[in-house]
Amino acid sequence: MMDLLVQKGLNVEQEAVLKARFIALCQALELPNHQAEIYYQDLYDLYTNPNRHYHNLAHILNFLNLFDQYKTSIEQALLFELAIWYHDAIYNAKAKDNELQSAILAQKLFEEYLDEMSLSYVNALIMSTEGHFPRLENQDTYLFLDFDLSILAAAPSVYNLYSEAIWQEYKIAYIKVLYKIGRKKVLKNFLAREKIYFSPVFHEKYEAKARQNIALELNGK
Q1: Long-range contacts of 37-44 (CB under 8 A, 24+ apart)
Q2: Is residue 75 packed enough to be buried (19+ CB in 10 Å), middle (13-18) or exposed (0-12)?
Q3: How far, in Å, CA of 90 to CA of 115, rounded?
Q4: What pLDDT does 1 receive?
Q5: Contacts of 133 (CB under 8 A, 6+ apart)
Q6: φ, ψ for residue 113 (rounded to 5)?
Q7: Helices 12-28 and 33-47 meet at what angle, rounded to 10?
Q8: What is the predicted pLDDT for the residue at 210?
Q9: Which helix (H) or strand (E) holds 159?
């Protein structure tokens, strides 16, 4: 697995790389350049919101790095990458429908440029992150979910930064004692699963490490 970043913001060079990637993706999907520029700025504003401590551009960069690493295993690469950009576009710690609202946003913005089957594919990937269970039983969906949760198998120091960043996002909505109760429930639900990672490659390489990190976090609470 590539080194994972957990940081509030990216440097100028990293941001330039992300913008170039998004513009190139939109060009491949045959969007006009001026529309791609507008869409990128809107995404940039969403992901750099001051309340984004984990679900930000660093998370998107991590996701894209894993996409690049496993791209040959992905069937619908352009649509997969589009889903990466929009899967956390809407993120409010107080809300319960972030995934749905993100999927709706992607649908609204790209329905002029994509056919119904393509839009359905993007929707299924984004909505699979709600509860992190695949809406479609295929390799693309498995990898999408596994990339999204790759942080769970990070080095302990990086995992600890992730855990703290999640708390920083939720502290605007919950007092610490209630957050801890909710966080414990989420972590225990992951451990109770038969699989955290759905793709064979991630399950084999990272399942044990993810379970170890989760258990350590639980034991520290």
Answers
A1: 39/109, 43/85, 43/86, 43/89, 44/15, 44/19
A2: exposed
A3: 23
A4: 79
A5: 145
A6: -115, -15
A7: 140
A8: 98
A9: helix 156-170
What is the rounded CA–CA span in Å between residue 47 and residue 62?
14
Give the angle subtended at the CA of 124 by the CAs of 57 and 126, to the nearest 5°.
Answer: 15
For the chain, which residues score pLDDT lower than 50? none
Q: Please name each of the domains of the chain with its CATH number.
A: 12-219 (1.10.1300.10)
Distance CA 175, CA 187 (A): 18
Q: How far is CA 73 from the centre of its chain?
A: 18
Q: What is the pLDDT of residue 202?
A: 98
DSSP 63-80: HHHHHHHTGGG-SSHHHH
**Distance between CA 63 and CA 144 in Å, rounded?**
9
